[in-house]
Design goal:
- The protein has 670 residues and is an alpha+beta fold.
- β9 and β10 form a beta hairpin.
- α5 runs antiparallel to α6, α8 crosses α9 and α13 (435-447) runs antiparallel to α14.
- The two termini are 49 Å apart.
- Keywords: ATP-binding, Biotin, Ligase, Lipid degradation, Lipid metabolism, Magnesium, Manganese, Metal-binding, Nucleotide-binding, Transit peptide.
- It catalyses: butanoyl-CoA + hydrogencarbonate + ATP = (2S)-ethylmalonyl-CoA + ADP + phosphate + H(+); propanoyl-CoA + hydrogencarbonate + ATP = (S)-methylmalonyl-CoA + ADP + phosphate + H(+).
- InterPro entries: ATP-grasp, ATP_grasp_subdomain_1, BC-like_N, Biotin_BS, Biotin_carboxylase_complex, Biotin_carboxylation_dom, Biotin_COase_C, Biotin_lipoyl.
């Protein structure tokens, strides 16, 4: 939250705020940002809320507001630390010793003289003790007061308050579940399926769906462990799981004078492991009457806890448009940019104004829905969508050359994606006058996004937004498991598209070699022989029984290739192996690598910390039995045996509670 803390409140027909060259009413001289990554960089990247008009106004400087970054030792060279006016190290890499270290952050506030703190989201953003400590030192917390944080941060209390405020709620047990056996009994009384979730949770952490008694026992254990690790509070609640719902949330905005608005909805149904992947605003599903009812109930809840700031009320919506309160997030939401796009309101600016004591400028009737906005969260989808990728970004290029595209990121070429923090690389946002226009722009932006060095989910995001079910609006929170029941395996090329890709690789190779050749291109497990000829600027490629003509400007230094293939424009980026005919023939004599037999090995799919070991040396384990639990990137993953085997008396790799798994992963012979 560094570079854009001001701007005009005027709502334009394009859905974006006009930026004034005159300073607004005074707020704060210096703000400390108690966060990292893309949210800590959000304001610099959003100097104009979106780069649609390619303006470059640093409105924080216009207001005379200085910014302070906090960072861990491994983040000393991070983008958010380098771009701030001041930066203070608050501890080593683990979040508990840095970004959750209240003592160190309070020291940074005193040392820099910051008058206010914006917490972003995650970390201390919904920590009432942090807000209390700030208030005790006369430092403004850019968020709601401690009463609202406590009331809405506790899912048990928030549900009771919602009921009293006449907000629709999900049937369930209105209390804390103390033991595993109590959890099983309550689940049986409610009726399966049920949702087990952390009372103090959020962001998909500490949540498990249970369909039977055994899953309830396992879910209770994992949810309580994740809740304790993520929030320092292992209390759990159980409620009825609404199968195949939509996840739709309402953005609210309230001041300290009793005024509150609902800023329309966000459709957040495309999820994996209860974490959102693609969001859009507005929703294709809501009619004006349902939107109004949801908005009014969200405002009723906000007023019931005397809420002041930006917040989000989340609902589950069934196929008949019945909606049920899920939770309220008392902070800026990750997906807030799409609301800014369709309303023209700068939510960060509004939060700062409210924290200073100003009244809201707008009335409910002033809040528009102008156009359509879509957000894609860029990170790793593979291994059944569940396990993020780590590594160094060897090449990184955002599609900011395109109009109506916004990228919220906190990284750059050479940045590391580490095990210590959230694996999200960026939020890619596109805007259009219509949904079709916004989707077309998103497809173009994904094609122009270059990320090398770590795996990422851009192929999945592109598959989602071009899938017929998504285009028609036929979605629910089960979209990903239904469409990809075995996990996403990558885009499956049709014959003509495969020929186009092969031909482009061959043409690029010939451009580099400057001569005609008979070639062989490897794609997946296949090898494809082809003949390439060049006439002027056009390459003619004979491949797989077809002819493909390829032309374009061959900039061999660029990762993006704008090509014309059989008369159609394509934007390509690929990494294929191209061999000469002789090299391909000789390659056939190379011995094939025999795949490793992993049936007797338990290997961690990613680096992490061993938080539990469930067996002892010498134990005989059954197929599917849990061996240990790995925690990485705020999530816990159970590693199980793939066959019946016996644990050895010694291990290969790091073992024991609290040890870290190295980059090669844990390797344990059974």
């Amino acid at each position: 939250i560094f570079r854009r803390l001001s701007g005009s409140d005027a709502i334009t027909t394009a859905g974006f705020p006009k930026h004034s060259d005159t300073c607004r009413a005074p707020t704060f001289d210096k703000i400390l940002i108690a966060n990292r990554g893309e949210i800590a960089c959000r304001v610099r990247l959003l100097d104009t809320l979106i780069n649609f008009e390619h303006m470059n106004s640093h409105t924080c400087k216009k207001m005379g507001i200085q910014t302070v970054a906090v960072h861990s030792d491994v983040d000393s060279s991070a983008v958010h630390a380098k771009m701030a006016d001041e930066a203070v190290c608050v501890g080593p890499a683990p979040t508990s010793k840095s970004y959750l270290n209240m003592d160190a952050i309070m020291d940074a506030i005193r040392a820099t003289g910051a008058q206010a703190v914006h917490p972003g989201y995650g970390f201390l953003s919904e920590n009432k003790e942090f807000a209390k400590r700030l208030a005790a030192e006369g430092v403004a917390f850019i968020g709601p007061d401690t009463h609202a944080i406590q009331a809405m941060g506790d899912k048990i209390e928030s549900k009771l308050i919602a009921k009293a405020a006449k907000v629709n709620t999900i049937p369930g047990f209105d209390g804390v579940v103390e033991t595993v056996e109590e959890a099983v009994k309550i689940a049986q009384e409610i009726g399966y399926p049920v949702m087990i979730k952390a009372s103090a949770g959020g962001g998909g952490k500490g949540m498990r769906i249970s369909w039977n008694d055994e899953e309830t026992r396992e879910g209770f254990r994992f949810s309580s462990q994740e809740a304790a690790s993520s929030f320092g509070d292992d209390r759990l609640l159980i409620e009825k799981y609404i199968d195949n719902p939509r996840h739709i949330e309402i953005q609210v905005l309230a001041d300290k004078h009793g005024n509150a608005l609902w800023l329309n909805e966000r459709e957040c149904s495309i999820q994996r492991r209860n974490q959102k992947v693609v969001e859009e605003a507005p929703s294709t599903f809501l009619d004006p009457e349902t939107r109004r009812l949801m908005g009014e109930q969200a405002v009723q809840l906000a007023k019931a806890v005397q809420y002041s700031s930006a917040g989000t009320v989340e609902f589950l919506v069934d196929s008949k448009k019945n909606f049920y309160f899920l939770e309220m997030n008392t902070r800026l939401q990750v997906e807030h940019p799409i609301t800014e796009c369709i309303t023209g309101l700068d939510l960060v600016e509004q939060m700062i104004r409210v924290a200073k004591g100003y009244q809201l400028h707008h009335k409910q009737e002033d809040i528009p829905i102008n156009g359509w906005a879509i957000e894609s969260r860029v990170y790793d989808p593979y291994k059944s969508f569940g396990l993020p990728s780590i590594g160094r970004l060897s090449q990184y290029q955002e599609p900011l050359n395109l109009s109506n595209v916004r990228v919220d990121s906190g990284i750059q070429e050479g940045s590391d994606i580490s095990i210590y923090y959230d694996p999200m690389i960026s939020k890619l946002v596109t805007y259009g006058a219509t949904r079709a226009e916004a989707l077309a722009k998103m497809e173009d932006a994904l094609d122009n996004y270059v990320i090398r060095g770590v795996t990422h989910n851009i192929p999945l995001l592109r598959e989602i937004i071009t899938h017929p079910r998504f285009i028609s609006g036929d979605i629910s929170t089960n979209f990903l498991p239904e469409v990809y029941p075995d996990g996403f395996k990558g885009h499956q090329l049709e014959a003509d598209k495969r020929r186009e890709l092969l031909a482009s690789a061959a043409a690029l190779y010939i451009t580099a070699q400057l001569r005609r050749q008979h070639l062989c291109v490897e794609l997946g497990d296949g090898r494809h022989a082809m003949e390439v000829t060049k006439s002027g600027d056009v390459f003619t490629v004979e491949v797989d029984g077809g002819t493909v003509e390829v032309s374009g400007q061959w900039n061999l230094a660029s990762p993006l290739l704008p090509l014309t293939i059989n008369g159609s424009h394509r934007m390509l980026q690929f990494q294929l192996r191209v061999l000469s005919k002789l090299a391909a023939e000789l390659n056939s004599y190379m011995p094939e690598k025999v795949p490793e037999d992993t049936s007797s090995i338990l290997r961690s799919p990613m680096p992490g910390t061993i938080v539990a070991v469930s067996v002892k040396p010498g134990d005989t384990v059954a197929a599917g039995q849990e061996i240990c639990v790995i925690e990485a990137m705020k999530m816990q993953n159970s590693l199980t045996a793939v066959k019946q085997a016996k644990c050895p008396l010694q291990t290969r790799g790091d073992g024991g509670r609290g040890r870290s798994a190295g980059r090669a992963g844990i390797k344990q012979d059974l």
